[in-house]
Amino acid sequence: MSTLFFVTIVIIQLNAQTNLLQSGPMTGYSTMREVQIWVQTTEEAEVQILYWEENFPAKIYESDFISTYKVDAFTAHITLENLEPGKKYYYELYINDEKILLPYKLKFQTQELWQWRKDAPDFKFAAGSCFYVNEDPYDRPGEPYGAGFQIFNSITKNNPDFMLWLGDNVYLREVDWDSRSGILNRYTHTRSYEGIQQLLGTTHNYATWDDHDYGTDNSDRSFWNKDLTYEAFKLFWANPTHGINGSEGINTFFKWSDCDFFLTDGRYFRSPEFRKNVKREMLGDKQIEWLIDALVKSDAPFKFVVIGTVVLSPVPFKESYETYKEEKEKLMKAIESEGIKGVIFLSGDRHYTELTKLPRENNYPLYEFTISPLTSGVVTKGNGGNKFMVEETHVQDRNYALFEVTGPAKNRNLKCRIIDKDGKEVWTYSINENELK
Q: What does the pLDDT read at residue 277?
């Protein structure tokens, strides 16, 4: 066999393997004993994960084989069970018994069993919203709406423990709204963007949604295909749960170290914004009661409440929580009357970034980090008159946040760095847990 012929055969085999991979693999939720990996193939196939502890590469573990099917957009969720706490792992993806070769090492970690043993581990996470991937035939005419895709190189380089997607992680277009195939195609198109693959495969990922990955612009509970986008969200993300005890909606909860994260669903139950003769709600009774109960139960120094829509701004601009004043006041009063400490709001949606600090009489101030956009268009019309915005935190550029939680028990510190698409730090802000009591 000639050398040229052998090399040609090898290249064909490698291309055949790669051609079976549509997108991913993506590292999903992490617990002390369990991690989930997501992957999408180009056709029906069998996928498997081989993995090993960082310090024991000779001992290889194998996941179950999982089949992908057209009806599920060829997606698979592979749960790795009975892992050891506080370990770092590398992994490889196999499709139809063929190893998929990638230009980076895939990795995941389990959370540490620190309780009753030592102070909680320090950690860092990235957060952002509004990820738009251009597709010229179906985009608005004119200048492409999506840009600044190098932002994902910066996020990956900073090596966060996890990435928190704050909504508008997919932009459904007019051609997508009316059909299941259109919705799944849009989710596939966005997830397949080459520039995010390393971030997906090397960092844990959690997500909520907002209007554009849920339905039409500024959509609410009336969106006619919300059950299809609900299905798509579950197919394409690897969150630990969806909804409250198996009910509808995508809200979920997870812990990282000593901090709690409450990911809410601000779309599925939202009443029409300007309907008059109806109870006005964004989260709905069941979800708001769950959130308040869970916040009361939490003893975390920082309790991150993730809502796709801006919460604390007093300006009743379109889509803000201020336009759902009754429900907003219920949440604010509960935080006050129940004595809930350590609440931090995280939001996206607005196509600009800013920090809001809401003063409260005889109580700690509430903070909200609004972080937007990753790659979609930037709003350059100011902040709409938010009088509680912290000075010099308004950013009109593509950006993301990098949060770090550090320090000993009873003195934990939260540091937020806003970083632009080119990796340049724009501003930094720190909050000690004792400032939120």
A: 86
Per-residue tokens: 70: 């057209």
User: Considering the domain 3-109 in this protein, what is its CATH number?
Assistant: 2.60.40.380
Q: How far apart (Å, rounded) are the C-alpha atoms in residues 151 and 154?
A: 5
pLDDT digits (tens, 9 = 90+) for 4-22: 544 455 455 555 566 999 9
Please tell me the distance from the alpha carbon of residue 260 to that of residue 282, in angstroms, as a whole number: 22
Domain extent listing, the chain: 3-109, 123-436
Q: What local confidence, expressed as pLDDT, does residue 13 receive?
A: 52
CA dist list (Å): 192 to 21, 99, 101, 229, 366? 10, 19, 16, 18, 38
User: Under the phi-then-psi rule, with left for phi > 0, alpha for psi from -120 to 50, and beta for the rest, what region is 331?
Assistant: alpha
Q: Would strands 75-80 and 35-41 be described as parallel, antiparallel, or unpaired? A: antiparallel
Of 311, 168, 145, 162, nearest in space to 233 by CA: 168
Contact call for residues 145 and 377 (beta carbons, < 8 A): yes
Distance CA 292, CA 294 (A): 5
Same fold, 3-109 and 123-436: no
**Residue keyed to tokens 């798509």:** 232
- Report in angstroms the alpha-carbon separations of 313 from 88, 322, 342, 390, 436: 40, 7, 19, 11, 19
Residue 10 is predicted with a pLDDT of 46
Chosen CATH of 123-436 out of 2.40.50.180, 3.40.640.10, 3.60.21.70, 3.30.70.240: 3.60.21.70
User: What are the backbone angles phi and psi of residue 173, rounded to the nearest 5°?
Assistant: -105, 175
Report pLDDT digits (tens) over 128-163: 999 999 999 999 999 999 999 999 999 999 999 999
- DSSP element (H, E) containing 289: helix 285-297
Measured distance between the N- and C-terminal CA atoms of the chain, rounded to whole angstroms: 75
Q: Confidence class of residue 384 from pLDDT cuts 50, 70 and 90?
A: confident
Q: What is the pLDDT of residues 332-348, one digit of tens each?
A: 999 999 999 999 999 99
